[in-house]
Design a protein that fits this description.
Helices cover about 30% and strands about 25% of the residues. By secondary structure, it is α/β, with parallel strands linked by helices.
Length: about 350
């Protein structure tokens, strides 16, 4: 489920409304889409009215919000959001702030949804105090789910996050393995020597060096696509899954799609990209001719589009990396995949971006 970019500020009193306005002004520039709402009795210019009761209103915005910040008592927050909770991987960040702005508390989605990071940011802006209750944070241990959001990595399986963090808290050590270079030093609690449970940074699904593996998929794969005119989304789906299954690659590591610019009007290709929320880049034949590293060549393709190979050259275009999947043909679709150069970094950046 894809989130919107809006941060909703909800208040139920005049003082809470004023604090929300103060916060909205402070957030401007850091976040583009800030929306203020309050009860009818406290509505003023620039603050929209909550239609109906608070819980019904929350239902209408819950899954289009990146974050919801309540400026009211915690009980109101809990009762308002409870019917709509689905899971930490899809729920928005929800914060509770008292009407004076003294305390800012992440309620749900502290790590994967970015509520903890947002709470710290909000507290700094309004000179309040962030109250963080997640175990890894209060024990100053590595919070892999929060880190993965900041680094735009996908974790799977989600159920392993809890086991990974619990092991770190109980034993003080979990493993790390990576198919990419890793920044030194490692965060406290991570070890190259652990064998039982560990995080594995990889674009592959079948690389599992530990007894229990939490796969960390960075966005590093660039998929080049060639196709005949009039191709359908279903045909591209079929070809794409055949390739990623054959090479055991994670769709969570895909960063972008690439093709030749004469395919801009291919509806099936656009629908395929939209269904995954991946950007698609169109490159001219002249640009593709200059690309180095392509392995395949076809005189027929040259006569048709002006360059000897679309999928490999498109995937390589402008990317520092290596061709890990050479041209694969499935019916009327060709696919190649490039893995860009990547390094695992540990730096912390405040973010509420969920990928």
């Amino acid at each position: 489920m894809t989130k919107g970019d809006a941060i909703f500020l909800i208040s139920v009193s005049s003082r809470g409304r004023d604090t929300s306005i103060q916060l909205a002004q402070a957030l401007q520039g850091k976040h583009q889409d800030i929306r203020l709402y309050t009860l009818a009795a406290y509505k003023i210019e620039g603050v929209a009215e909550i239609k109906g009761d608070v819980s019904t209103f929350v239902k209408s915005i819950f899954y289009q919000a990146k974050a919801i910040i309540f400026c009211c008592a915690m009980g109101i927050v809990v009762r308002s959001i409870a019917p709509y909770l689905k899971g930490k991987d899809v729920d928005p960040a929800v914060l509770c702030m008292d009407e004076k702005g003294a305390f800012v508390i992440p309620v749900i989605s502290g790590h994967l949804g970015g509520a903890n990071s947002l709470a710290r940011q909000v507290a700094r802006l309004i000179k309040g105090k962030a109250i963080i209750t997640t175990a890894t944070d209060i024990n100053h241990e590595f919070a892999i789910d929060e880190w993965s959001v900041q680094q735009h990595c996908l974790l799977e399986p989600l159920a392993m996050i809890k086991r990974f963090s619990a092991t770190l808290l109980e034993k003080g050590c979990v493993g790390i393995n990576s198919e990419f270079p890793v920044e030194k030093p490692l965060p406290q609690g991570l070890s190259w020597e652990a064998e039982d449970i560990g995080m594995v940074v990889t674009a592959r699904m079948n690389y599992r060096p530990f007894k229990k593996n939490l796969l960390v998929h960075p966005q590093v794969l660039h998929v080049g696509i060639g196709c005949r005119a009039g191709i359908s989304k279903q045909q591209i789906d079929s070809a794409f899954f055949a390739v990623v299954d054959k090479f055991h690659l994670s769709t969570g590591s895909v960063k972008a799609l690439h093709t030749i610019d004469i395919k801009k009007d291919e509806v099936g290709l656009s629908e395929f990209a939209s269904s995954w929320h991946w950007p698609i880049y169109y490159h001219s034949a002249e640009m593709l001719k200059k690309v180095k590293g392509s392995k395949s060549s076809s005189s027929f393709v040259t006569q048709t589009v002006g360059v000897d190979n679309v999928c490999e050259r498109a995937a390589l275009c402008g990317i520092e990396g290596k061709l890990i999947v050479e041209k694969q043909k499935h019916e009327s679709v060709t696919i190649a995949i490039v893995q860009e150069d990547y390094m695992v970094l540990w730096s912390k950046e405040e973010s509420i971006c969920r990928k």
